[in-house]
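Fold this sequence, please.
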Amino acid sequence: MAKSLAVKDRARESRVHVKRMIIGSILLLVLTIVLVARLFYLQILQHDSYRILSDENRIRVEPLPPARGLIYDRNGVLLAENTPSFNLTISIEQVNDLEARLDKLHQVMGLSEADIKAFEKRLQRRRYQYQPVPILFGLSEQEMAQYSVNRFSMSGVAIESRQIRHYPLGELTAHALGSVRRISSSDLPELDPVAYAGTHYVGKTGVEKFYEQELLGKVGYQQVEVDAHGRLIRTLEASPPLPGKNLLLHLDASLQQAASDALGEDRRGVVVAIEPKTGGILALVSQPAFDPNLFVTGIDSQTYAALQASKDTPLFNRVLQGQYEPGSTIKPVFALIGLLTDTLDPEETIDDPGWYQLPNQSRIYRDWNWSRSNPGGHGKVNLSKAIYRSCNVYFYDLAVRLGIEQISQHLPYFGFGANRTIDLPEARKGLIPSPEWKKSAKGLNWYPGDTVNVGIGQGDILVTPLQMAALAALIANRGKWVSPRMLRASSESAPSRLQPDPAQAPSIQDWELVIDAMEQVVHRGNQGYGENGTAWAYIGRDISYRMAGKSGTAQVVGIAQDEEYDAETLPERQRKHAWFIAFAPVDDPIIALAVLVENGGGGSAVAAPVARAVLDHYLLRNPVQQPSDDSEGLETSVRSGDAR
């Protein structure tokens, strides 16, 4: 009997289908609910957060660096400006193989290992993604042409234009202005990241450093829209930067040039001139110097090594940081201290046989004009003659009578032993010696012979050329102290001024006595005097105005008792330093100065003619010139041998 065929169970299939539909619908409903919930969470609850993230990917805020303030001299001559510079940059997000790109730049642009290391440091410090990072600064026209020819094969590499500092007068104002340099990693902890956003440079020395906040300006910003590759599409909003303030200095560029010319290219030395009524620095020359423009975009290691290794030390600011024995230029100070303390009578005379000897001691301290062939001295000497003939014996005796304690007590009044400038914090203090200092610094006792040497500005006493120019201004002002400063227009926050003790101030009669003697240093001889002032033969014969001055010569190496100083037998760098301080016109001074010629020899023969050339330029160029009145004077009413 045949088997019956199975019949399709449609009812069962229908139940299975319905069941599957229900399960699928439920699953679809659950997924729909999850999707809607997720959309609600993203679009509603997290809307603000994701909108910000989206904008950050699409919109970028870029800093706009401000233009640095300009610097002018007192006559409007531009001393520091901003010029366009073209830098090569890399946007690493647009570079697939950075190492290959750097290798290409090495071939095309001559990129060095030092450039690559500096680039890597800047890359680590960049503030936001897609920010182009400079790799070469200050491109030449040839370098820009090389880039243009090869740009098709260097995606991500571009040229950007920036303003950089430029000093039109170069070496002439290097030590007077200081300079800006690229921001280094060591600078970052001290700089406000907001204020310096987009800025590659900061003032590192001098005026540029002291007035950094005034010169910097205020950074601006712009919002730009970029594509997925970080490329600029359009600028959405911009807040322009505010340029830095311009500075007007007391410095006179013409006088600066005249001082440099008078000093000469082959000499190491200093000329610093001050306006007595204001303390404004009219000239600040330290030679040799260097080109500050080399440091702005980064000096190459070979050039920098040569500057550092030079025995002439062009990077060293002799005006502010050089500390020297003042020689006889300090004798007017000791005369004033002697008058103030009633230690001397200006009409009292001493007999100068050409040498000085302490009681019960065998050592002889010679006068500058003593020699075996002419062993005589200056004869009868009073205070006036002691100054205009620079008599060592007189001041040996005066120093011993004053004593080192009294000397060290009164020297600060004359500006020594402290930095009394307004805006030159790099200026050194010099050294006022004392028994306490010698014991602490050298572990030795103070001897009477030390005081003898100090009496003619030798031994342990040290001063800076700026302090000596300030001393000349103090004498010119008859005791009215003005603090040296560079800025002519008053800054918003005036620094504090020091106030010497008025009890240590000499009388006006004392000042006039000393000034009269300093005037004779230059002019005595015109009327047929038997004894000329020490500088008359060199600068006083044909002078058309009245100048007061004092020469000085400071020994660099000691000379034994039984030897005479002979410059011809000494190496050039062991010869004496030549000093001269002066001010003019005597009755109403408008300029005071100090000149130092390192290893130059006699102060009257070498330094005085430099001072005369500077004064001639300033006074004869504008004979009716008056001191500036735009800012008030800052009242706050330094080895035995040849020390001329």
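The first helix runs from residue 10 to 45. The CA atoms of residues 279 and 449 lie 36 Å apart.
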